[in-house]
Amino acid sequence: MTTKTAVQKMYLAGNWVEAEKTAGVYDPKDNSIIAEVPAATASYMIKAIEEAKEGAKTAAAMPVHQRMKIINRAADYIEENREKYAVTIAREGSKTITEARGETQRCIETLRLSAEEARRINGETIPFDQREGSEDRLGYYYRFPIGIIGAITPFNDPLNLVAHKIGPAIASGNAIIVKPATVTPLSALLLAEAFDVAGLPEKVLTVITGSGREIGDVLVTHPDVRMISFTGGLETGEEITHKAGLKKISMELGSNSPVLVLNDADMEHAVESTVSGAFSAAGQNCIGVQRVYIEEDSYETFTSMFVEQTKQIKMGDKLLDLTDMGPMITEKEAKRVEEWVNEAVEKGATLLAGGHRNGAYFEPTVLTDVPDDCTIARQEVFGPVVLLYSVADLEEAITKANDADYGLHAGIFTSDIEVAFEAITRLNVGGLMINDSSDYRIDGMPFGGVKGSGLGREGVKFSIQEMTEPKVVSFKLKHRKIV
Fold first, then answer.
1. Is residue 392 assigned to a domain?
2. Are residue 314 and residue 219 in the same domain, yes or no?
3. Which residues belong to any copy of the Aldehyde dehydrogenase domain (predicted)?
4. What pTM value is reported for the model?
């Protein structure tokens, strides 16, 4: 006797619909199927875009108070059903139930911020008389929604990162089509459920499931989609940029974040913060700690403490409160990390902790003496591996931290305010966390990077700026007296 897996419908322009084919959603801990979702084809995406053209008009016409009420009602619904959301995040992804509850709370806060920022989409008056001959003109600019936004989201924060696209889009009067990660679509569909219950008008929101190869290109290249908001890997981001054509692009493309630990740092705090920053969500975090540069006088002490705390991390069942770290998203990804670690060891790196794989589970791993030509030293590992380096001083630490194709977040631990400001000036990143690991973030701050880490900024207020355009209005007054 076989048990039929539940089929979750997708949310197409305000309606829950099925498709001819389905795709399985699997729990990475044992690869067991937990649900099936529609495997949409290009025709479904085209329909979603056509419907969104009407939805964009509806969204733009919604008064601000209505947008705010709908977003807050959606947040209320998630708050009332928070355990349902947390369990879904934990089951379909890599997060433990504790981490999933934290993400659920962040999603609620992201939506509340979106509702608040809807009332602050302001313009400014413009002094046209700054130009000689324009004394008879008055005017201003205001921001208007750009229309249809296409959003492509990753697996590692399957609820909150979707909220970071839907919340600001609705707050700013746009229609939005979300293509969630193929492996974690259920959380995004639950977010659509919250907006459906909240009374969002039809055609404003679509959450469409399916293969990126099947439906992604349609979303990216369609001329009626005026902005692509993408969170994911550098290679895919570059492909999207080449395909998208003339439209706005916002991209958060990850990093291999550096953290600097100086001799005057609070070592106990630095170790605790960097261990957490390296191994939360099984290391699958775009701002997770990957490279740690420690001043040589503190290197042995820091390394010893770091390895000791790393070995105390409890791997296991994601749904147990006592579990610190779950599996990676797929066994394939765990095998990739295993290959990168083995390559580093073969080239001379020292393995101080971890390094072993069991299915999709990969142990928290600490490497030292990693040669610069190793893959893991240059690329984003996106797994539970951290590299420790000894450096002579701040100068060497900054030079090595900047020697990467990425620049999202960095961290520095020091008691010297002048040293902190030196790092602020010279580290080539989008955000620097002083006496915190690179992993620190709140949902109201601008979030994004430089170099291969992306284009534009997220964070609710800043996403709204990306999702709107300024329009200038000038009045020429016939009878204005010039004093």
1. yes
2. no
3. 16-473
4. 0.95
According to the model, what pLDDT value does residue 478 have? 83
**Per-residue pLDDT, 483:** 57
Q: Tell me the residue range of the domain where 402 lies.
A: 258-434
Asked about 469 being catalytic, the answer comes back as: no
pLDDT of residue 1: 36
Residue pair 309/275 in contact (Cβ under 8 Å)? The answer is: yes
| Cα 128–chain centre separation | 40
| Helix, strand or coil, per DSSP, at residue 34 | strand
When divided into structural domains, the chain yields a total of: 2
Q: What is the pLDDT of residues 367-397, one digit of tens each?
A: 999 999 999 999 999 999 999 999 999 999 9
Which among 404, 337, 407, 328 has a CA at the least distance from the CA of 367? 337
pLDDT for the residue numbered 2? 44
> How many other C-beta atoms can be found within 10 angstroms of the C-beta atom of residue 54?
15
Same domain, 209 and 325: no
Query: Is 286 among the catalytic positions?
Result: yes
Note whether residue 319 is domain-resident.
yes
Q: Same domain for 201 and 315?
A: no
CATH of the domain at 387: 3.40.309.10
Catalytic residue among 252, 295, 331, 466, which?
Answer: 252
Residue 448 lies in a domain: no
CATH classification at residue 73: 3.40.605.10
Enumerate residue ranges in the chain where pLDDT < 70: 1-4, 480-483
Phi, psi at residue 138, to the nearest 5°? Answer: -130, 150
| 445 domain-assigned | no
DSSP 359-428: TTEE--EEEES--TTSHHHHS---SSEEEEEEESSHHHHHHHHH-SSEESEEEEE-S-HHHHHHHHHH--
Q: Under a CB-based contact definition with an 8 Å cutoff, are residues 18 and 38 in contact?
A: yes
Q: What is the dihedral of CA 104, 110, 113, 115, to 10 degrees?
A: -90
Looking at residue 270, its amino acid is A
Given the residues 286, 331, 333, 363, the one annotated as active site = 286
Cα dihedral across residues 114, 115, 117, 118: positive or negative: positive
Instruction: Tell me: do 123 and 29 sit in the same domain.
Output: yes
